[in-house]
Design brief:
alpha/beta; 2 domains; six-stranded mixed sheet; two-stranded antiparallel sheet; 10 helices; 8 strands
């Protein structure tokens, strides 16, 4: 592959080589629309071979369906209508119990049609793949289920939470999966489905072009977010100094409606 023949931006090539599936950007692009990768992941986590994925939606493909603050890493639906939300979490704080509760509520509010009878609510799994063993027990997977405490019986609300320990490295299916998630070289991966998908975006021209475009978009989003924050802070400082509206608009480059909303916050 020649970067000069394809017009690839050389500054992105080295970062692309270092991407791993535990990096949510790379996880998203590799799993976007890939039923094969998603079925592999779920079959290993659930230790089953009969899960048939019929739909995979990631942050990239759902940007028109979900607001930025409520995007999921990956949503998948199987042939029985079960919903799986897989989240990559590099920090322990990101995989907090309340985050799992939040995701479950969002899935119900967005995926369950209005008027659906409660008994028809789909089974939902929120699955965190964490960089660290956040429970420090050395287990490959932690299952979280609600129970009726006094009866020691399951509370059948069809909502389930799982944590996959990214620090786990035993010579079993989950251990090999976590090795692959932390591996930046597709040739060193155990599972061919993941190796082929990662290799496409790291080594093949079309895939690398797609990664370069995504990185450009990410840099643009980061720049726009920084500019927005800077402009907001400028407007807030000028509001505190009781500067006239015309002057605030001129120096903050914000519309009057946004400045008026900020003024309300300061009251």
């Amino acid at each position: 592959m020649s970067m000069f023949a394809t017009g690839l931006n050389p500054k992105y090539l080295e970062p692309i080589k270092r991407f791993r599936l535990i990096d949510d950007t790379f996880f998203n692009i590799c799993f976007d629309g890939s039923h094969e990768c998603m079925q592999l992941l779920l079959s290993i986590i659930f230790d089953r071979i009969d899960i048939i994925v019929k739909e995979v939606i990631t942050q990239r493909s759902a940007h028109n369906l979900y607001g930025r603050s409520v995007r999921f890493d990956v949503l998948a639906v199987d042939g029985d209508g079960k919903i799986y939300n897989v989240e990559i979490q590099r920090t322990d704080e990101g995989a907090s119990p309340r985050r799992a509760r939040f995701n479950t509520c969002l899935i119900d509010s967005r995926e369950v049609a209005k008027g659906t009878d409660f008994k028809e609510f789909p089974k939902v799994w929120v699955i965190f793949i964490t960089e660290n063993d956040i429970f420090n027990a050395g287990l490959p997977i932690y299952h979280v289920e609600r129970v009726i405490t006094e009866l020691d019986q399951p509370f059948e609300d069809a909502a389930h939470i799982m944590y996959v320990n990214g620090d786990y490295r035993a010579e079993d299916a989950v251990g090999m999966l976590m090795h692959d998630f932390f591996c930046d070289d597709p040739d060193q991966m155990h599972y061919k489905e993941l190796a082929q998908r990662a290799g496409f975006f790291k080594h093949e021209t079309k895939g690398v072009n797609a990664m370069c475009k995504i990185m450009q978009d990410l840099m643009r989003e980061e720049r726009d977010a920084w500019l927005s924050e800077e402009r907001t802070n400028t407007a807030l400082d000028m509001l505190r100094d009781n500067k006239p509206m015309e002057e605030i608009i001129k120096y903050s480059h914000l519309p009057q409606e946004r400045i008026e909303a900020l003024a309300q916050q300061l009251r």
